[in-house]
Amino acid sequence: MTSQTHDKVVIVGGGPAGTAAAAELACHGLKSVIIDEAPKLGGVIYRGPLRKTDSLPHLDDNLKRAMTALQTRYQAHRESIEVKTQTRVLGPEGSNQLLLSDDSGLSRQPYGHLILATGCHERSVPFPGWQLPGVMLLGGVQLQLKSGLVRPGQRMALVGTGPLLPLVACQLHKAGVDVVGVYEASPFAKLAKEAVALLNKPKLTLSGMSMMSYLKKHKIPFKYGWGIVSAQGEEQLSSIHVAPYDSQWRPQRDLAEQVAVDAIGVGYGFVARTQLAMLLGLEHTYSKVSGYVPALDEWHQSQNHSAFVVGDSNGLLGADAAICEGQLAALRLAWQCGKITESELFSRATKVNNKLARIKKFRFGFDRFSDRQPGLLSLAQPQTVVCRCEQVRKEQLDEAIAQGVKDITSLKMRTRIGMGDCQGKTCSSYALDYLHQAGLTENIGVIKPRFPLDPIPFTLME
Amino acid sequence: MKPLKRTRDITPLPSRNFKITVDDQSVEACEGETVLSVLLAANYAKVMENDRNVASGAYCGMGVCHCCQVKINAKHKQRACQTLVKPHMSVETLTNRFKEEGIKHD
Ligand code: FES
C-alpha cells in the first residue's frame, strides 16, 4: 500500500456512524470517501427532507437538532471527505476494491482501509394480509414523513414494539394523519421494570414521556400488550384486527377488535445489514436482537479482513451509539496510521466509551422490554405467504421441516424462500426464527448474500 | 390527459416544479422527491404487480424489499422508493414483464 489511492479510507454508509467516522478521521488528517445509496447524507434516521421546504411542522426539535448536527459534522470537514451519493456498492472486487454502480455506470473504488456503516433494515413479521398495499414497515412510514414530506395514509394505526411507536405516532398526527391507535406488544409493567436502565438517558426518557402525554392529549389510544392479528382489504388495506397479546405475544383472538384504516406502520424490530460484510468474508455470529453480526474486537475491527464495522450494522444500538462507534473506529485507524499516539488514542477513546456505556444501558433496557416473543411466529397461518418475492407459504416451511430440512440453505432449495429480488432480506429473519422454534439451532447457517448486492441494470452492461 | 391531484403533501410543494406522467395521467413533482413519494402523494397505494402476479404496495420504503417496482421510462423493475423524479419521467404502475410478454411460471 504505497500509492495514495491505496491509503484511502472508504466508508460505506453516510448515516450517523459513517459520517462521525469521516469527521473524526479528518480531525487527525485522514481523508475519506463516503459512499451512500441515498441522495443525501444522514442515513434513514437523519437524512431529512429530499425536496425543498420552508418548515417541518411535523418533526420534533430533537430530531431537527440531530439532523443539523450531522450536517455540521460533515460541513466542518468537507475538504477531507469525498461524498459519493446515489451510489451503490455491488460487492468486493479483488482484495482491495469495491465495485460500485451509479447513474453513469459501473466503477471501481480502491481502498486502503474499509469502514462499513451499512445500518440496519426492518425485521418482517408475516401475518395474514401483510401483503396488502397500505401495510408498511415503520421505517418506511417514517421515511415518507421525514424525507418525502408525504402522508402515507389518511387513517392509520401503528403496531409493533419499542420507542419508535410513540415517536412516529406523534409525527403522523402532527402531519395531519388521523391516528386511530397505537399497539405496543409488550405490557406496561415490563417497561416500568426498566425504569432504572432508562434513567441512563434522562433526556430521552423525558421526551418519551412528553410524547405519551401528547398522544393522550389528542386522544390517540396507546395500548400496551396489544398487537396485530391480521389485515383485511380487497385491493388495498381497509381494516386490521388487533388483539391483546399474552406474555408470549400470542394474540387472544377471541378479544380481537377490528379497526378501519387505510395504512399501517408495522415495527417489530430491526436486523443488522451485513450483506457486504458477509460477502467480504467477515466472520459472523448470531444474536437474537440483531440477527447475524460480524465478530469484532473492542475497536469494531474484524480479525480476518481488518475492516471496521460500526453502527447498527454490527448490532442494533441506535444513532447515538453509532456516532460513538464511528469515532472509536476512526481513532483506532488514526493510531494504526501513525497519526495519533497511543496515549491520545486511549484518552480520547475512554471518553467515547463512557458515553457508549451509558447509551448501552439505556438501550438494553428497551431491548429487554421489546424482546420478541414466540407468539409473533404464530400470526402467520398455514396459507400465509412468508416470502413475498417467491410467494412461499408458511405450510411449505412446515412441510420442508417435516421432511427433514435442518438448515436455511436447504430450506431455500426446497421452498424457494430467499430466491427472489430482495435476496431474502424480507423473509430470512422469520425463516431463522422459525427454524429455531422447530428446535433447529445448530449450524442452520444464513441466506448467503449474492454478488451483485444490488441488481445491475442491463443498460449498464451494454 | 387527466391530471392527478396530490392530496397528501405535508408541506406545500416549492413553486418551481415540473410534471411527470403516471399511468398516462400527469402529476406535479419537484426536484429531490422519490417516485414513491409522488405516487403516495397522489394516493396510489397499489404500485406493483410482482413476478407471481401479486399486487403490492411499497413496504420497506428504503430499497430493501423490492415491493415497489414500477416501469420507469420503459424500463421494468425500477424501485419507486429509490428513484428520484426527473422532468418528463413516465411511470407505469402494476406492469410486469411476465404478464406483458405472456411468460408463464411452471
Ligand atoms: S418499498 Fe421496499 S424497495 Fe421500495
UniProtKB/TrEMBL annotation, chain A:
Entries under Gene3D superfamilies matching the protein: BFD-like [2Fe-2S]-binding domain, FAD/NAD(P)-binding domain
Residue ranges of domain FAD/NAD(P)-binding in the record: 8-318
Keyword annotations from UniProtKB, A to Z: Oxidoreductase
Pfam family, one: Fer2_BFD
Keyword Metal-binding among record annotations: no
SUPFAM superfamilies in the cross-refs: FAD/NAD(P)-binding domain
GO molecular function: oxidoreductase activity
Domain BFD-like [2Fe-2S]-binding: from-to ranges: 385-436
Protein name, entry field: NAD(P)-binding protein
Automatic annotation (TrEMBL), chain B:
InterPro entries: 2Fe-2S-bd_N, 2Fe-2S_ferredoxin-like_sf, 2Fe-2S_ferredoxin-type
Limits of the 2Fe-2S ferredoxin-type domain: 16-97
Gene3D superfamilies from the UniProt entry: 2Fe-2S iron-sulphur cluster binding domain, sarcosine oxidase, alpha subunit, N-terminal domain
GO molecular function: iron-sulfur cluster binding; oxidoreductase activity
Keywords from the UniProt entry: Oxidoreductase, Ubiquinone
UniProt entry tagged with the keyword Acyltransferase: no
Protein name: (2Fe-2S)-binding protein
Organism of provenance: Pseudoalteromonas rubra
